Amino acid sequence: MRGLDYEIVLVAYKSAGLVRALLDALPGRPVAVVDNSHDVDGLSAVVAGRPGVRYLDGPGRGFASGANLGVRTSTHDIVVFVNPDSSPDLATLDALAADVAADPGLGAVSATTVLPDGSVEIGVGGWEPTARRAFVHAVGAHKLFPTAGLWARPVPGRPIELDWLSGACMAVRRATFDRLGGFDEQFFVYNEDVAFGRAIREAGLRQRVRTDLLVPHLGGGSGEGKTHMLQLRGASLVRYVRQHHPAATVLGVRLALTLGYAPRYLLARARGRGALAAEHAAYVTGLWRGAPAGTSS
């Protein structure tokens, strides 16, 4: 869509191959590539010579700080955050930018990410974490009551009201992002989007997930190993709940999710699926012990 002034912001970590493929699919579009791994994989060479694409040596302190740097140095009216392991087409990016450009009351709008098999990814957004919602997710009841858990898996084409949106493919006015303080850099990775959704709601703005815009997303293509990231995910959730809810809610969320993942861990062990068991254990470790050494949550 012509006339839209937006820049794509990619926060990358050891993902030069994914960034190359994404940039090849978006020729001539303004893109800020924030490299949180300090060019260890030659990402600056991937960016060099591409019209409209700029390389930023990121702070290396997680997604939130990298994304904030991209926005802070942008001169465009709208920014569209895109994960390096997602594959939006130009029409989708234009549609997201057009939505926020047309409606000043819209704090953010996102696409719906889908897995390689075409199914909608759980966690394209969600609701404010509570002990009840954590329990619903832990026992698997969210499969029967899809709006009662923590994380959303919307039906394509069917509108859904959410409290926050995933930043995997999300557009926002730069002025709005700045006014709300950007992403909370206390979160190394995960739940900075939950905190941003809360800021949008508290400012009296709306947010929308476009369930008609489907974007392929590999997941886990820009980060450390899976157990490391899952421990971070658990730690980050607890950090958010602790910031915004009483201690009883923090304990309730921890206990509910532990109740759900402990039997999954035991079942995986019994079936000889050691890697899966380690992933479940890492998530619960994050809930109770915090982030892995050397990182913050």
From TrEMBL:
This is Glycosyltransferase family 2 protein. Transmembrane segments: none annotated. InterPro entries: Ceramide_glucosylTrfase, Glyco_trans_2-like, Nucleotide-diphossugar_trans. Keywords: Glycosyltransferase, Membrane, Transferase, Transmembrane, Transmembrane helix. It is found in: Membrane. Pfam families: Glyco_transf_21, Glycos_transf_2. It is a multi-pass membrane protein. GO terms for molecular function: glycosyltransferase activity. GO terms for cellular component: membrane. Residues 30-112 form the Glycosyltransferase 2-like domain. It comes from the Bacteria. Pathway: Sphingolipid metabolism; Lipid metabolism; sphingolipid metabolism. PANTHER family: RHAMNOSYLTRANSFERASE WBBL (PTHR43179). The keyword Zinc does not apply.
